[in-house]
Amino acid sequence: MINEPKKTDKNDFIKIFKEKITREGSDKLLEFLEKSDFFTAPASTRYHGAYEGGLLRHSLNVYECLSEYLARDRVKQKYELNVSEESAAIVALLHDICKVNFYTTSFRNSKNEQTGKWEKVPYYTINDTLPYGHGEKSVYMISGFMRLTRDEAMAIRWHMGFSGIEDKNMIGKALEMYPLAFALSVADMEASYFLEGTDEK
To answer: Which pLDDT value is given to residue 2?
Structure first.
């Protein structure tokens, strides 16, 4: 199921950001996002959120999934994972900030199935001007504006979970040591695979 962007996505994001994130430097970070392509960028080139505004929609989806996960009694009581609303908003809304100014639009020839004629169609390509990894790049970019707690930094760094390319033992250790990282990785996968899906299904 493809979860399309909504007209209110940008306003919703800014509202949540301003209400939940009040840390010193957060205002400058939001200014940076508004000047960048964050609100129009795709979330990927051909998988989940591969459309204009996909990154924004994905960030909001992850925020919703993480908030609902953290609200569970089992998570609070049995796992004793009590995360502030600010931390939840930071890690969910900003975990993929590494994708800002990351994609460009190119064109290729494709045959129109209705007319049988060839035509130029746009598609997204990657133009990584800051090759600093994925989760670690998001941590680096956020840290240029405001301080992250260790739990927040680890959650963002390891949000790809076992779908990342790092040593699986290292990923497992990080998720074990930092439960917020595990929670964010679950929310990210839920949003990516169940809410957003892929055009290649």
So the answer is: 54
